[in-house]
Amino acid sequence: MATAPQIDIGIEAKDRVAIAAGLSRLLADTFTLYLKTHNFHWNVTGPQFNSLHQMFMQQYTELWQALDEIAERIRALDVPAPGSQAAFAELTSIAEETGVPAAGEMLKQLVSGHEAVARTARAVFVSADAANDQPTADLLTQRLQVHEKTAWMLRSMLA
C-alpha cells in the first residue's frame, strides 16, 4: 500500500499539533454545547415553550454544522480529530446537564456555554497567529461571531 505524501502547507508540525489541540478543545466544547442545547430543545416547558423550542432547534442545528467545520480543519492540519464521548468529556470546559432545569436556568446555562466556547476559540488564536494560520483564524473569527451573538440574544431573554 502506498503511503500518503507528507503534508507541506507552510506550518511546522509542532505548530499544527498545537493548533489542532486547541481546535480539539473547541470541538469538544461545541459538541457538549450542541448536546445540551438539543436536550433543552426536547425538554423545555413553560409559557415560552414555542419560542424557546424553535430557538434551541436553530441553535443546535448551527452547532451541529460547526462540528464538521472544526473537525475538518483539524484533519486539514493532518491531526486526528477527537470523536468519542470520553475524549470530549476530557477536553470540554462545559459542564454536562443531567437533569431538566426550568426554562430560565436553561437560558442561563446556554449563555454560559456560548461564552465558554467563545473563550476557548479566542485562546486558539495565539497558536494560530504564531503559525501564520489564516484558515484557522478565519474559522475562529466565524465561531466567535456566532457564539458572542447567541450569548447576547440569550442574555436578552433573561432581562
Automatic annotation (TrEMBL):
Family annotation (Pfam families): Ferritin
Care to name a GO molecular-function term for this sequence?
oxidoreductase activity, acting on metal ions
| Occurrences of domain Ferritin/DPS (ranges) | 21-158
Say which family it is in: Belongs to the Dps family.
- The protein here is known as Ferritin/DPS domain-containing protein
